[in-house]
Amino acid sequence: MSDKNKCLYFDDEINLPSQPLDTTIITLERKYALEIDRFDQLKDTEDALKQGGYKLVFIDIRIEAKNGGGIDNRNWRRTGIALINRIREGWYEPESKRDIPIIVITAVADTEAQREIISIGKGENEYRISLFEKPANDDKIGEVAKGFLKLL
User: Would you give the distance in Å from CA 53 to the centre of its chain?
Assistant: First the structure.
């Protein structure tokens, strides 16, 4: 597969058997030709982001403590938001990758979390970010991903 479709997917439930998440990833890989590296641990996700090369990132918001949740003075329910902030601040990729498109797929996106995610999407670079609540329509996620990748 082409590096132009290389994506990172971070969700603490990604490796659990018979999760709806599995069908989402299979659809994204087969129907939308995305090459997805899957991670369920924060440390592994951060290591992969430091290596770079990703064109799109999928992130869950709630990451259990056993999977590395709870960073930057946030509890596990907001780990994904903290990780998005780190990406936007340039912790992992070169400066030019701070605006990498991000698709948030989460089971619980309360109003406060939604506002915070939307505010991360704003700024002088007009960062690309989209939010879906689980269970989400795989084709809608795929179309947004495809649209983000066309902009690159």
Answer: 14
Q: Which of 58, 47, 49 is nearest to 101 (CA)?
A: 58
Percent of the chain with pLDDT over 70: 86
d(CA 136, CA 106): 9
Strand order of the β-sheet with 6-10 is 35-39, 6-10, 56-59, 102-106, 129-133
Nearest to 137 by CA among 24, 38, 33: 24
Give the pLDDT confidence score for residue 46 in this predicted structure.
93
CATH numbers and ranges of domains, the chain: 3-150 (3.40.50.2300)
Between 56 and 93, the more confident residue is 56
Above 50 in pLDDT, residue 1?
A: no
Asked if 56 contacts 152 with a C-beta cutoff of 8 angstroms, the reply is no
